[in-house]
Amino acid sequence: MQIAIDGPASAGKSTIAKLVAKKLGFIYCDTGAMYRTVTYMALKDQLPLDDESAIMQHLAKMVIRFAPGETEQRVFMNDEDVTLAIREPDVTNNVSQVSALPRVRTELVKRQRDIAATHDIVMDGRDIGTTVLPNAALKIFMVASVTERAKRRYKENVQKGITTPLATLESEIAERDRKDSHRAVSPLRQASDAIRIDTTNMSIDEVVARILTLVAETK
Ligand code: C5P
């Protein structure tokens, strides 16, 4: 069974997707982490972010791997644990540029489909219901107000020691939404058969319960 969860930045997709996957015994695939890892690599290797050929050459040699960790799933770029590095502001603020590159998307979509081919899966991102898994049994489009999303991101950041002010986060989130929704290839949009959930005034438990009900109705 495939469950697709899409939506704008910081709408709570990964938190919810992880919990739903755990409850169902499915694997969880964070496709945003894959685009972030490519962005991290390009910044680290000092590649111009519009040099698609150079990025593709490096990506061809790069394995992106998810592995269980003590508290949360870890992300590896080859043998380097990049779990924390890919959440840093320089990656966050450049990822939309890299994720708009058509050949990068083609390559990562292929890898995402390979992961989904052999497992029951909850996959989250921007184009899962529209492009990666168009036949997913359940598609969720998760939204929340920009103000609420910035507040959530702020709280998360404080725990990680990242000190970006709330107002800056709000404008960064709005800008990332704008770029992700307006790119030429697989822009962020709700699939026609996706169910929209506005989490602005919902607790995490409420959202998880709602999705589990939808899963039960789908089976
Ligand atoms: O989900 P997260 O916020 O970590 O995603 C980071 C970025 O990766 C998004 O802002 C978007 O540019 C890109 N992305 C994408 N397609 C996906 C998942 C993420 O373009 N399926």
TrEMBL record:
Q: What is its EC number?
A: 2.7.4.25
Q: Give the GO cellular component terms, alphabetically.
A: cytoplasm
Single Gene Ontology MF annotation = kinase activity
- Give an example GO biological process: pyrimidine nucleotide metabolic process
Q: Which UniProt keywords apply?
A: ATP-binding, Cytoplasm, Kinase, Nucleotide-binding, Transferase
Positions bound to ATP: 7-15
Cytidylate kinase domain: residues covered: 3-215
Question: Where mainly located?
Answer: cytoplasm
Cellular compartment(s): Cytoplasm
Q: Quick check: keyword Kinase in the entry?
A: yes
Which InterPro entries does the record cross-reference, listed alphabetically?
A: Cytidylate_kin, Cytidylate_kinase_dom, P-loop_NTPase
Q: State the Pfam families in the record.
A: Cytidylate_kin
| Superkingdom to which the source organism belongs | Bacteria
Gene3D superfamilies (UniProt xref): P-loop containing nucleotide triphosphate hydrolases
Catalytic activity reads:
CMP + ATP = CDP + ADP; dCMP + ATP = dCDP + ADP
Residues annotated as coiled-coil are none
- The positions making up the signal sequence are none
Note the HAMAP family from the entry: Cytidyl_kinase_type1
Hey, which family's this protein in? Belongs to the cytidylate kinase family. Type 1 subfamily.
Q: Which NCBIfam families match?
A: cmk
Quote the protein name from its UniProt record.
Cytidylate kinase
